[in-house]
């Protein structure tokens, strides 16, 4: 299971109660920590983000859907069956060669669960939430993303009412690819803006 240090700050009351319950269930043999971690990892990196990957891949291949996503992301995403709790508004922001978008929640950890699944631990950490605003280029470098010096970086602050989805640049060399193939190139981090879509070479390596 995760440790307190991984959160980059103190645990909230709810997190402390969950941690205490996990400890009790583990001691009694009702919960296997490794199994819980495996489920969480699956929802963080595979199951949840697959929804968002489908949205991105459709936008890459369907100009009409891409425009709908720009104009009304909530409705466009809902048309694929992905809806959040009532009142959530989704906004799609599109990367270009000269402009890169990154999403953060400076006050807590608001996150578009309907398209990205569970928020990763680093997204909820105090260091990420503060540094993303103060030195976004440095944060991107920590994630292995190097952008041209003249590229503008825009930061979007999620709230309980408004969540953001980054539409990453479509990788070169994917002309003629199906939506299913393209979805395999879309990562969770690329839809948060802390990463880029995979290149075709990365999926065949």
Give the mean pLDDT. 87
Q: Return the string of H and E elements.
A: HHHHEEHHHHEEHHH
Shape, per Cα inertia axes: globular
Rounded to an integer in angstroms, the radius of gyration calculated over CA atoms is 18 Å
Terminal CA distance = 31 Å
**Major β-sheet profile:** 2 strands, parallel
Structural class: mainly alpha
Number of helices: 11
Helix content: 40-55%
Strand order of the largest sheet: 1-4
Strand content: 5-15%
Unreliable stretches, pLDDT < 50, 5 or more residues?
1-9
- Kindly state the number of beta strands: 4
Secondary structure: elements and pairs:
Blueprint: H1 13-27, H2 33-61, H3 63-71, H4 73-78, E1 89-94, E2 99-104, H5 113-116, H6 121-124, H7 126-134, H8 136-142, E3 152-157, E4 162-167, H9 179-183, H10 188-192, H11 200-204
Parallel strand pairs: 1-4, 2-3
Polypeptide structure, described:
With 205 residues, the chain is mainly alpha-helical. Helices cover 48% and strands 12% of the residues. Helix 2 packs across helix 3 (63-71). The longest helix has 29 residues, at 33-61. It is globular and about 55 Å long.
Brief sketch in words of this structure:
This protein is mainly alpha-helical. The chain has helices at residues 13-27, 33-61, 63-71, 73-78, 113-116, 121-124, 126-134, 136-142, 179-183, 188-192, 200-204, and strands at 89-94, 99-104, 152-157, 162-167.
